[in-house]
Design a protein that fits this description.
The protein has 14 helices and 18 strands. Helices cover about 35% and strands about 25% of the residues. Helix 5 links the parallel strand 5 and strand 6.
C-alpha cells in the first residue's frame, strides 16, 4: 500500500532535507521522479513522494500525538494501524509502531495516448505499460477517399506486445498541413469518395491488425454537421459488426450550439450515441498564437465536462490531457508564435535561468517568467505533479471513463507515477 505526497520545493531545500522530512530515502525520491539533476532543485518545483507502510521506534520524549504529527497523519490512523495500543498515553521507549499510508484510489480508468510513428522507442516502451490504447497519428484522408501511408507496423507490434490496443487514426489534414474543411466536406458529400475511404479503412484495420478506429476530423463546416453525423452512422455500422471499436475526437464545447468553425460541426449527442469513446480535446486554451496562459486551465476543463456529461454517457468520455507547455515572448503580440516545451524541459529551463516556479490556483497550472540573454521577457506555462493530480481528481469527480494524452512523445515521469498511484489502468487486451 502506497500513498503519494506532492512536495513543492522551497528556497534552501535539497533532496536530502526533503527525504529527511518525509522519512524516505533520497535515492527513492530521485528514482521515482527520474530526476536528472537532483543536486540543483528549482524553487517551486514539484517532487512526488511515495510513502509505503513504515515502522517507527519510539524514542525518549515522544508521544503518540507527536509521532502522528511528525508523519503528517492523524492520531486515529495510527491507532487503527496498531490495535495492540489500548492506551495511547502509555507507549514506551523502544516500542515499534506501524505508520500507515493514507491512500487515494479513484478506481478503474482507460488511458489513451497519441503517438507519432517517429516516437523515440525508449519513450514508447516506458509509456506503454500505463496505456489501454495507443492512437497512432495519423492516416491523412485525401479527397478521393485514399489514405497517406505511414510506418505504423513497429508501433502496432510494440503496443500489442505490451497488451495495449492500437487504434488507427484518420484525419482531414491536408498535404500542405493543417485540418482541411474542404477535404472533410468532400468525404461527407461524395458517396464514391466516402465508400473508398470506408473500404480503405476496413482493409487497413484488418491488414495491420488494428484494434479499432479513431476519427479525428476537425474544423468541419457548420453546414456539414449532419453530413458528418451520417458518415459516423455509416462507418460505425460497417466496422462494429467486424469487431472494431469506434473512437472520435471532438472540440471542447461548453454548450451545444457553441459558435465557431472548431465547434459547430461536432454534435456531442450523436458522437456519444455512435462511438465507443469520445475524446474531448480539453487543451489549447493557451496555444501557439494565444496570449500567455495555461494550456488546460482546470476551471475551463470543468466547464466543458459540465456540458459533456449532459450529452455523452460518462463512461464514453475520455478527458484530454496535454503533455506539453508553451514559452511565450513578452510583450505578447498577435500572430507571434510561442514555442512548445516539454514539462521536464520547463523545469530545466527554470533551473538554467534562475527562475522560481509559481502556481496559478484558479487554472491549477504552474508558470514562471524570466529574461533571456537579449533582455526579452518570457512567460512559460506547463504541467507539473500538482496540475496533473488536479486533472485526475476532476476526471474522478465527473466519473469519466478515460483519459487521453496529446501526445506521449515527451516522457513525463511524474505524470505516470501519479497515474499508477491513483488509478487502476484497465487493459482490454
Amino acid at each position: 500500500m502506497i500513498f503519494l505526497r506532492i512536495h513543492v520545493v522551497r528556497s534552501g531545500e535539497s533532496i536530502y532535507s526533503i527525504a529527511r522530512q518525509y522519512r524516505v530515502s533520497p535515492e527513492k525520491i530521485i528514482s521515482d521522479n527520474e530526476l536528472d539533476d537532483p543536486s540543483n532543485l528549482v524553487v517551486g518545483q514539484t517532487i512526488v513522494i511515495l510513502e509505503g507502510t513504515r515502522t517507527h521506534t519510539v524514542t525518549p520524549g515522544e508521544s503518540l500525538y507527536s509521532i502522528a504529527n511528525s508523519y503528517r497523519i492523524s492520531l486515529n490512523a495510527i491507532l487503527q494501524a496498531n490495535p495492540q495500543i489500548t492506551n495511547p498515553a502509555a507507549i514506551y521507549v523502544g516500542q515499534t509502531i506501524t505508520i500507515p499510508p493514507v491512500t487515494i484510489n479513484f478506481g478503474n480508468i482507460e488511458v489513451n495516448g497519441y503517438a507519432f510513428p517517429n516516437i523515440n522507442r525508449e519513450v514508447l516502451n516506458k509509456t506503454l505499460p500505463h496505456l489501454t490504447y495507443l492512437s497512432i497519428f495519423s492516416y491523412q484522408v485525401k479527397p478521393d477517399g485514399s489514405l497517406t501511408a505511414i510506418q505504423d507496423e513497429p508501433l502496432i507490434q510494440a503496443a500489442r506486445e505490451a497488451r495495449v490496443a492500437p487504434l488507427m487514426v484518420i484525419t482531414n489534414i491536408s498535404e500542405e498541413g493543417g485540418f482541411s474543411s474542404d477535404i472533410a466536406h468532400e468525404i461527407f458529400t461524395n458517396e464514391t469518395a466516402q465508400t473508398n475511404l470506408i473500404n480503405n479503412v476496413t482493409n487497413t484495420l484488418r491488414n495491420k491488425n488494428y484494434y479499432g478506429l479513431d476519427i479525428d476530423f476537425e474544423y468541419i463546416y457548420p453546414y456539414d454537421r449532419e453530413s458528418y453525423n451520417n458518415f459516423l452512422r455509416r462507418i460505425s455500422s460497417t466496422l462494429r459488426p467486424l469487431g472494431y471499436t469506434i473512437t472520435t475526437a471532438v472540440a471542447p464545447k461548453t454548450f451545444a450550439e457553441q459558435p465557431g468553425l472548431l465547434y459547430q460541426g461536432h454534435d456531442y449527442p450523436v458522437h456519444g450515441a455512435l462511438a465507443d469513446h469520445v475524446i474531448i480535446m480539453t487543451y489549447e486554451w493557451g496555444y501557439t498564437y494565444s496570449p500567455p496562459q495555461a494550456v488546460a486551465p482546470i476551471n475551463e476543463v470543468r466547464r466543458v465536462l459540465n456540458y459533456a456529461v449532459t450529452a455523452i454517457p460518462r463512461q464514453k468520455i475520455f478527458m484530454g490531457i496535454p503533455n506539453y507547455g508553451y514559452n511565450w515572448t513578452l510583450p505578447f503580440r498577435p500572430n507571434t508564435a510561442a514555442t512548445t516545451i516539454s514539462n521536464t524541459g520547463a523545469v530545466d529551463l527554470a533551473r538554467r535561468v534562475g527562475a522560481a516556479i509559481q502556481y496559478d490556483t484558479v487554472a491549477q497550472s504552474p508558470f514562471f517568467r524570466y529574461y533571456d540573454e537579449n533582455g526579452r521577457q518570457h512567460e512559460v506555462w506547463f504541467e507539473d505533479a500538482r496540475s496533473i493530480l488536479a486533472k485526475f481528481t476532476l476526471a474522478n469527480e465527473f466519473r469519466v471513463g478515460g483519459l487521453s494524452y496529446w501526445t506521449i512523445g515527451r516522457y513525463f515521469p511524474q505524470n505516470w507515477l501519479i497515474l499508477e498511484e491513483v488509478f487502476d489502468v484497465r487493459k482490454v487486451l
